[in-house]
Amino acid sequence: NVTISHYDPDVWNYIEKEKIRQENHITLIASENYASDYVMKIQGSQLTNKYAEGYPNKRYYGGCEYIDPIEQIAIDRAKKIFHADYANVQPHSGSQANFAVYSALLKPGDLILGMNLSHGGHLTHGAAVNFSGKLYRSMTYGIDETTGDINYIQLQDIALKYKPKMIIGGFSSFSGICNWKKMKTIADSIQAYLMIDIAHVAGLIAAGLYPNPIEYADVVTTTTHKTLSGPRGGLILSKNKDNDFYKKLDSSVFPGSQGGPLMHVIAAKAIAFKEVLDPKFILYQKQILKNANIMVKTFLKNGFKVISGKTNNHLFVLNLKDKNITGKQAEFILDLSNITVNKNNIPNDVQNPFITSGIRIGTPAITRRGFKEEEAVHVSNWIIDIINNFNNTQIIYSIKKKVLSLCAEYPIYLNKY
Ligand code: PLP
């Protein structure tokens, strides 16, 4: 783009560098993905100029005749994908979606019960440093270390004893399958709301490869940019409720917590949802699972510890406690070989969140650029070699060469799925 590069090289040069960084690095950050060319292009459209406070056919601004059908298409496609009766496509992010749901259904000071951050929960599920832990009182449940599964007994015990107003399911770094029905039973037994945040597994759910919580939860929230592969954004879904309930959710987004919707992003969500409805999307999500599964097997075979001992989704967390390296150091050293991961706390971690004892690995991005099992095994072996020899710069730089050549073989924007 000649014009922008001349007009503002200060910013443009960094964008160019970031583009090259993405091409030349193997991204294993479980929450990242590559949006399609269409999705990126639409976000640069004229829709960014338009104010459209309100909802389709109920706007506070004129000139919305072309905006309304776009938002309606996004809503209809979201409902179809997730078998929902209600969708709100306006949340600017996953955190905004969660904020809107809490403020629709709770009062400040109410008790919420979500998954512990270091066991795989998200900041917005009640962490002390987040609005969710400041506006609301919060308690947490975690993983049963012997089974690697969610500790439903602990969840139930806390629920029965303390009677939270809302139970929150969903996670950012748990590699198992959640029993949504069990969570619903527990929530019902204390008349609590059940909110399920599917941000991480939304793509797998859309493809029918992970249980859909829509039948069980009062509300489901998600981001649109992780396994779902759309633009950065949030989405709220619900089913089998009355119109008053849906209205409460709507008004909690606008005017409750947001102003004008980002129509260029909503249009991009609509396009991403069309891509999700394409049968190719199922092949993509299946490959994500295969790649994650073979990576876990490779790590286990080589004496690495995986939290929960397996993965049934797109991610897993390596426990590095017995490797003499922290998560922070592993993240740094892998980056020297152009492999991007994020440090991650493990259950009952003795290290703080800036250091950690683990790294999280996810396969949505590598799969999107075309890696299959063979490449996933190579990547795993490179990570194993680097971590086992973290003082050996020769190994680190020889692997970097291999990473660069694999990345060149699989350019990101060839729309493989
Ligand atoms: N919920 C979960 C489970 C997440 O993993 C994330 C992001 O990582 C969010 C919500 C927040 O999404 P956002 O970064 O769009 O606010």
From TrEMBL:
Limits of the Serine hydroxymethyltransferase-like domain: 5-383
The record's keywords, sorted A to Z, are: Amino-acid biosynthesis, Cytoplasm, Methyltransferase, One-carbon metabolism, Pyridoxal phosphate, Transferase
Gene3D superfamilies listed in its UniProt record: Aspartate Aminotransferase, domain 1 (3.90.1150.10), Type I PLP-dependent aspartate aminotransferase-like (Major domain) (3.40.640.10)
Query: Enzyme group, top EC level?
Result: transferase
- Provide a GO biological process annotation: glycine biosynthetic process from serine
Q: Fetch the CDD domains from UniProt.
A: SHMT
Annotated pathway:
Amino-acid biosynthesis; glycine biosynthesis; glycine from L-serine: step 1/1; One-carbon metabolism; tetrahydrofolate interconversion
N6-(pyridoxal phosphate)lysine modifications at: K226
Indicate which residues the UniProt annotation says bind (6S)-5,6,7,8-tetrahydrofolate. L117, G121, H122, L123
What EC number(s) would the UniProt record show?
A: 2.1.2.1
Q: Which GO terms describe its cellular component?
A: cytosol
Cell compartment(s), UniProt? Cytoplasm
What cofactor does this protein call for? pyridoxal 5'-phosphate
User: Main location per UniProt?
Assistant: cytoplasm
| Catalysed reactions, semicolon-separated | (6R)-5,10-methylene-5,6,7,8-tetrahydrofolate + glycine + H2O = (6S)-5,6,7,8-tetrahydrofolate + L-serine
Q: Where is this site: Plays an important role in substrate specificity?
A: H225
Which SUPFAM superfamilies does the UniProt record give?
A: PLP-dependent transferases (SSF53383)
Could you give a GO molecular-function term held by this entry? pyridoxal phosphate binding
**Its job:** Catalyzes the reversible interconversion of serine and glycine with tetrahydrofolate (THF) serving as the one-carbon carrier. This reaction serves as the major source of one-carbon groups required for the biosynthesis of purines, thymidylate, methionine, and other important biomolecules. Also exhibits THF-independent aldolase activity toward beta-hydroxyamino acids, producing glycine and aldehydes, via a retro-aldol mechanism.
Quaternary context: Homodimer.
Similarity field: Belongs to the SHMT family.
The protein depicted here goes by the name Serine hydroxymethyltransferase
The scientific name of the source species is Buchnera aphidicola (Stegophylla sp.)
